[in-house]
Design goal:
17% strand, GlcNAc_PI_deacetylase-related, LmbE-like_dom_sf, Rossmann fold, 37% helix, zinc, 8 helices, hydrolase activity, acting on carbon-nitrogen (but not peptide) bonds, in linear amides, alpha/beta, PIG-L deacetylase family protein, 7-stranded mixed beta sheet, globular, single chain
Length: 253
């Protein structure tokens, strides 16, 4: 199991966190993100779809998209995130196409994060709701972008030629919503759980039963803390941590 404490040190300067829909990051990683920002680390969000197919009210999809943008921006502020990028893809239609991957490559080269966060590209059969097709597409698009495209100067050469965005090697990929057998890193979020819940409550269009949502999230974080063998009653978020460019990484292998 990877010790996540090291990621809160001087080497981690920026984090770029991707979600398929508004609220995905808040369910999967907002406690950890609050810990990052509390440590002085800059975090930026990228939401890949507008969330226009989400919610429980009979509302025009364009109005829903505007509301969900606003909800996500408010939720981000709750955990110390000031910059939210929206790729504008249609909810329910996200694919790891070259157009989407190019947008991801562009943003990663612009931000140059030490850690990229994304949804896991593998389906979770224990709870299939974690594996919405958009979630899988988010993870696949980001993973394909990170290797090899972001670090390959010959991938999407127009980004270098027209925008001056040079190749960049991402050190770490943190995937959330992973199948349990893939999870190899846990972050104690007990001190930041309140911020995580405040962020989730900001997505008011998505929670017809707020109390049920809160119980579910607490149960999940409590179970993660137990699996991580943290002290009693500690709460945690779980990740599949992938070293993309570690000290011993050999390019091309």
């Amino acid at each position: 199991m990877i010790n996540t404490v090291e990621f809160f040190g001087e080497k981690t300067e920026r984090v770029l966190a991707f979600g398929a829909h508004p609220d995905d990051l808040d369910f999967g990683a907002a406690g950890t993100i609050a810990a990052f920002t509390a440590a002085g680390i800059e975090v930026q969000y990228c939401i890949m779809t507008d969330g226009d197919a989400g919610g429980f009210d009979d509302r025009d999809p364009q109005e829903t998209a505007l509301l969900r943008h606003a909800e996500q921006e408010q939720a981000a502020l709750k955990v110390g995130v000031k910059t939210v990028h929206f790729l504008g893809e249609r909810d329910g239609y996200l694919e790891p196409s070259h157009d989407v991957i190019r947008k991801v490559v562009r943003l990663i080269r612009e931000v140059k994060p030490s850690i990229v966060m994304a949804m896991h590209p593998e389906r979770n059969w224990d709870r299939i709701q974690r594996s919405h097709p958009d979630h899988l597409a988010c993870g696949e698009a980001v993973t394909r972008a990170i290797y090899p495209a972001v670090e390959n100067p010959f991938a999407y050469p127009e980004l270098l030629r027209e925008e001056g965005l040079e190749a960049y090697k991402v050190p770490w990929l943190w995937l959330y919503g992973a199948p349990r057998e893939r999870e190899n890193g846990f972050v104690d979020i007990t001190d930041y759980f309140g911020q995580k819940m405040d962020a989730l409550r900001a997505h008011f269009t998505q929670h017809p039963d707020v109390a049920a949502m809160e119980r579910f999230v607490h149960q999940q974080c409590s179970a993660n803390g137990q699996r991580a063998q943290f002290a009693e009653r500690r709460l945690a978020e779980a990740f599949h941590l992938v070293a993309v460019n570690a000290d011993d990484t050999i390019a091309g292998f």
